# Entry
Amino acid sequence: DIDDEGHKYYLELELEDVLDKDSTVSCTAEVLYHLGSRASAPDVQVTVHGELRSTQEADKEFYNWIRSLEKELVAENIPDSHGNIPPELEPIHLLAWVASGYVIWQNSTENTKFHLAQVQHVKQVKRSDEDLQFDFVVLLHEMVSQEVLPWEVTLLWHPQRGARVSQS
Amino acid sequence: ANMKLILIFAALIGASLCLETFVGHQVLRIKTKNEEEVKQLQLLESLEHLELDFWISPSAPALPVDVRIPAVSVQSVKAFLESQGIEYSILIEDLQDVLDKERQDMAESAQRQRSSSFDFGAYHTLDDINAELDHLASEYSFVEKIQIGESYEKRPLYVLKFSTGGSNRPAIWLDAGIHSREWVTQASALWIANKIASDYGTDESVTSLLDKMDLFLLPVANPDGFVYTHTSNRMWRKTRSKIPGSICVGVDPNRNWDAGFGGPGASNRPCSDSYHGPSANSEVEVKSVVDFIKNHGNFKAFLTLHSYSQLLMYPYGYKCTRPDDYAELESLGRAAANSIRSLYGTTFQVGTICKTIYQASGGSIDWSYDNGIKYSFAFELRDTGRYGFLLPANQILPAAKETWLGLKKIMEHVRD
# Structure
């Protein structure tokens, strides 16, 4: 408890690479949930103790593929009702996860637990700069209320610059 | 003419015999032209020793008469008809041939049904699931499909009863799919039903279990919601009941039980996914189970499947205090979780609902526990959020198998 501020949590975490189950990295984090009901995202500081696997090759492949598309990519329901994801859309699913992470962070309190339930819709938007832009509608499942609600979020991504949520 | 009739009748009487098969039996279709001919046939019908089997009895001249004739009488009857000028045609030359072919067809069809059997590793529609319940009930003498009620939209609530005898033996309850979007649960329940049925007689544990106790399995506790997840909204959780005064539909069936009803952890807003409903047991899907269990009066365990999160929980949810049987339930829960982990390494957290997941009122296992059913457990199956409700079908069998080990551990304890 931090007087006049809120609740601070000190965490020791182990990150597991979803695409490489044997690969784990430890992290430490500090999370400060602010006092009061005024919705404000918790403050988060994370330190990664170790190396994250390089994904340069796969990143480049994906980037080039999207850039080469004549028509902008559009997709729905990832995964589908049966849990299937077409292999070429797996990177889109992963980017949606990242985008969801941002939304979840912005909406988390000590009484929420969010998961990405499904990518309802994704639309690529071609840009004049080098970033890829994806407009997502993601369904987030909140465990305590059990609600599954749609959220719009736009993600920019570039192999070197990484992922950023567009604030527009 | 009468003399001729008597002679021929005499020949027919001599020809009658008792046969067990239908070899050489013929079926004739007789077309009568007038009332006189109809009367002749009615006379023929009255000769019981001929053992003529009229498939269509003589009644009026305009209607055909179909009759099966035993082999020994075929020639005589034909001679009689011809002598009277009565027209006939042969519908079936040899009935046994037809029966043999029919039996062969049926065997082949049954063979096809057994080998192209239900794919337990895939997700199915309600109709397909109900068809498989029928199949299991027909294949195993100790499995019976019973209906315990109807959903809001009037779909039958089907329960599989596993009973090898006795009268109202101590029983175990298992349900799945009370929250319709949790598809791995209905799918696992089907696999588990088939597993139990096929293991009886070969697996020592299952055999001794069913020799002492009955099992009642409700694979789709919320059929309306389940159909809705197929046709309209994969993420639908609640029932589909109309709520007076609201445009929103449905009640969370696991907040609708009479256990701390309306307390914390349930919403009073109809549009909420955890809406508890206007009153306890307002949902017919819940009331049907409550009535069934109360009327039975001899349930010893109440087990329910949900997804996701990988949890194994016991009461209470509506309050954050421990149940009286805490020690035993915790220990049994841990043993079950260990069994689950032994198969693929999948870890389930064990504890009370309140401590493990959240405070939630009106839940089914709280009701069952407070109504004297000590062994009340709720499972949350795979996964922990990567796919959540949309668990890939290739995980159905692993999920079902590991869950079964946990259920079995609990059932064995209840049995002993």
